[in-house]
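user: can you give me the structure for this one chain? tokens are fine.
assistant: on it. calling the predictor now.
[tool input]
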Amino acid sequence: MATVLVVDDAAFMRMRVAKLLKENGYNVEEAENGQVAVEKYAQIKPDMVLMDITMPVMDGLAALAEITRYDPGAKIVMCSALGQQNTVMAAIKAGAKDFIVKPYQPDKIISSIKRFVG
């Protein structure tokens, strides 16, 4: 069973996504900001990361850079309400595998995860 690290500063968003993933057979870990995500990634080495971009302490783009420096093969999908072209391109150039726009659509999350970890 694949483990997905869900990173979002909004607890209700983490809970909503975690519930969806658990219902679809995935193990879920959570982090409330990019700094915690970097630390947890090193500890648990999840199969995939779903990460918000706009967060306090360390934003998602900075965390993406840290994690891909540590593990160039990391499977990270960025999520944000900021569906702006430059943000999407920055995330992809920095190593993100995909980009999901909030509000989350359950089928998009599941299809993205299945594409990268089965």
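assistant: here you go. The chain has one domain: 3-46+60-110. The chain has a mean pLDDT of 91.
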